[in-house]
């Protein structure tokens, strides 16, 4: 009977060792995946920031070149919003 206990104890320890090895391998694999994902997100963020700065710069240049277009657009928008939200009596 003690031989059976030793044998089953050894099997349990062997199974636990196999689980530890497998979990360690998956942990390393997940760390690599997260690192790659983080790198991709960082590159995407840099691209979006660069494009946004370019768009804002282009809009600023255009507004300085033709300010009356933007002034009239703002006035028209204000007028239309005033018509929409005015109190009806």
Written account of the structure:
With 89 residues, the protein is an all-alpha fold. The chain has one domain (2-85). 93% of the residues lie in helices and 0% in strands. It has helices spanning 2-65, 67-85. The longest helix is centred in the middle third of the chain and has 64 residues, at 2-65. The protein is elongated.
Shape summary: elongated
For the record, give the distance between the C-alpha atoms at the N and C termini, rounded to a whole number. 98 Å
Number of helices: 2
Helix content: over 70%
Mean pLDDT: 90
What is the domain total for the residues?
1
String of helices and strands: HH
Number of strands: 0
Q: Whole-number radius of gyration? A: 33 Å
Structural class label: mainly alpha
What proportion strand? Answer: under 5%
Summary keywords:
89 residues; mainly alpha; elongated
Summary?
This protein has helices spanning 2-65, 67-85. It is an all-alpha fold and 89 residues long. The protein has one domain.
Structural topology:
Elements: H1 2-65, H2 67-85
């Amino acid at each position: 009977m003690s031989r059976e206990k030793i044998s089953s104890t050894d099997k349990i320890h062997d199974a636990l060792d196999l689980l530890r090895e497998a979990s360690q391998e998956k942990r390393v694999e997940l760390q690599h995946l997260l690192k790659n994902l983080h790198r991709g997100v960082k590159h995407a963020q840099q691209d979006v920031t660069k494009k946004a700065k370019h768009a804002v710069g282009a809009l600023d240049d255009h507004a300085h070149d033709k300010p009356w277009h933007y002034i009239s657009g703002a006035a028209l928008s204000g007028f239309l919003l005033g018509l929409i939200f005015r109190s009806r009596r």
